[in-house]
Amino acid sequence: MSHSQRYWAVVPAAGIGRRMGAEVPKQYLPLGRQTVLEHTLDALYEEPRIQAVCVVHAVDDPYWKTLRYSAPRPLIEAPGGAERSDSVLSGILNLLTQAHPDDWVLVHDAARPCLRREDIANLMDTLTEDEVGGLLAVPTRDTMKEADDQGRVVATLDRSVIWHALTPQMFRLQTLHEALVRARDDARPVTDEAFAVEHLGLKPKLVEGHADNLKITRPEDLALAGFYLQQQERL
Ligand SMILES: Nc1ccn([C@@H]2O[C@H](COP(=O)(O)OP(=O)(O)OP(=O)(O)O)[C@@H](O)[C@H]2O)c(=O)n1
Ligand SMILES: C[C@](O)(CO)[C@H](O)COP(=O)(O)O
């Protein structure tokens, strides 16, 4: 690699939180004295190798401007899209105006505030010389069943090969750009970055993280996130 490698982050924060069913999008719900999104940003800025964070928020988002977040390093804004993958692509396009295509980007959900410092560092250390990139993930713990359309078990799966995909997901900017543009042009829905990269014929690396890096999705998840932040002495 001829240039010195740099690391950027994209935080998709343009969702409406339909499954959460709260009065405000879940990234703006309070967890102690800060919002979910501010805890997430704190976690990313704690990693000194990340030189700037691009927050992707909805164009008409009235909540973003009410935050009084003081970022310790550059914070870039980009407009959100209809799906998560559209929002991530918007962030990538913004970064490509100022970054090198071979720079790394870590995409991390706004709704995952409990990301551990050591998990980001481990992801970066593991992948920095990798050809493809990869993602934090945790192996499944339970016995896994495959169902038919009647909700009846048709198979018990080999759980040793099944992982839960978490974020951050870390790829080179040009790889992720190509993957997301191709997914968009093929009208293929992709629920995470790795899914898009897989369709380029590449194999993202799974880096084991921790299950406390949960995504706040349903109402009961908020209290659990508060508990995990307390355990990490961040609340
Ligand atoms: N069009 C979208 C949809 C989602 N996200 C972000 O992607 C992350 C993970 O998505 P998810 O948990 O599905 O969030 P929501 O779309 O807000 O939730 P729901 O599907 O329940 O509406 C969240 O940080 C969310 O803000 C985004 O930036 N742009
Ligand atoms: C990217 C993600 O957080 C990985 O688990 C996830 O795919 C987000 O979307 P979901 O529809 O809530 O699974």
From TrEMBL:
<feature type="site" description="Transition state stabilizer">
    <location>
        <position position="26"/>
    </location>
</feature>
<comment type="function">
    <text>Catalyzes the formation of 4-diphosphocytidyl-2-C-methyl-D-erythritol from CTP and 2-C-methyl-D-erythritol 4-phosphate (MEP).</text>
</comment>
<keyword id="KW-0548">Nucleotidyltransferase</keyword>
<feature type="site" description="Positions MEP for the nucleophilic attack">
    <location>
        <position position="159"/>
    </location>
</feature>
<feature type="site" description="Transition state stabilizer">
    <location>
        <position position="19"/>
    </location>
</feature>
<protein>
    <recommendedName>
        <fullName>2-C-methyl-D-erythritol 4-phosphate cytidylyltransferase</fullName>
        <ecNumber>2.7.7.60</ecNumber>
    </recommendedName>
</protein>
<dbReference type="GO" id="GO:0019288">
    <property type="term" value="P:isopentenyl diphosphate biosynthetic process, methylerythritol 4-phosphate pathway"/>
</dbReference>
<keyword id="KW-0414">Isoprene biosynthesis</keyword>
<comment type="pathway">
    <text>Isoprenoid biosynthesis; isopentenyl diphosphate biosynthesis via DXP pathway; isopentenyl diphosphate from 1-deoxy-D-xylulose 5-phosphate: step 2/6.</text>
</comment>
<dbReference type="InterPro" id="IPR034683">
    <property type="entry name" value="IspD/TarI"/>
</dbReference>
<comment type="similarity">
    <text>Belongs to the IspD/TarI cytidylyltransferase family. IspD subfamily.</text>
</comment>
<dbReference type="InterPro" id="IPR050088">
    <property type="entry name" value="IspD/TarI_cytidylyltransf_bact"/>
</dbReference>
<dbReference type="GO" id="GO:0050518">
    <property type="term" value="F:2-C-methyl-D-erythritol 4-phosphate cytidylyltransferase activity"/>
</dbReference>
<keyword id="KW-0808">Transferase</keyword>
<feature type="site" description="Positions MEP for the nucleophilic attack">
    <location>
        <position position="215"/>
    </location>
</feature>
<dbReference type="InterPro" id="IPR001228">
    <property type="entry name" value="IspD"/>
</dbReference>
<dbReference type="Pfam" id="PF01128">
    <property type="entry name" value="IspD"/>
</dbReference>
<dbReference type="InterPro" id="IPR018294">
    <property type="entry name" value="ISPD_synthase_CS"/>
</dbReference>
<dbReference type="InterPro" id="IPR029044">
    <property type="entry name" value="Nucleotide-diphossugar_trans"/>
</dbReference>
